[in-house]
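Raw record, unedited: Clavesin-1
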Amino acid sequence: ADMTHLQAGLSPETIEKARLELNENPDILHQDIQQVRDMIITRPDIGFLRTDDAFILRFLRARKFHQTEAFRLLAQYFQYRQLNLDMFKNFKADDPGIKRALTDGFPGVLENRDHCGRKILLLFAANWDQSRNSFIDILRAILLSLEVLIEDQELQINGFILIIDWSNFSFKQASKLTPSILKLAIEGLQ
């Protein structure tokens, strides 16, 4: 099957970048995707809620088309959601907690991309008002923002930059960042 429709809307430059930097080959995209899909039966403990071509392709791009690594990332993605169900309940921009975090700039998403075509997300840690936003809601807002942005194929190839400005971050604010909550954040972002 001709899989070029999976690259539809990409500029020639981006397609070339994907070839050079991510080992993306339009002629064998279908086989690459299918090889990842075939690994799903090895993890019956995980509910893979999406297995369509476009979705699996994201994970191949994220791991430069190493199928085993891409599958490991795909499995981690759904396992994280399975282990943290409450975080993904009503995982939409109109969820009150997420909406408040986004309104307060957690995260801010810059309009323009950087010179490498990457999308820039910005957080000013000192602006975190703990009486308004729980850390979990901020994390959910960041994850939802990434989830929406990653639909854009150019960004799947070019990537993201997350800038966190820690200046003027108070000890009182920091005391809320327990090791278990930081672990949750790092695993979710990975």
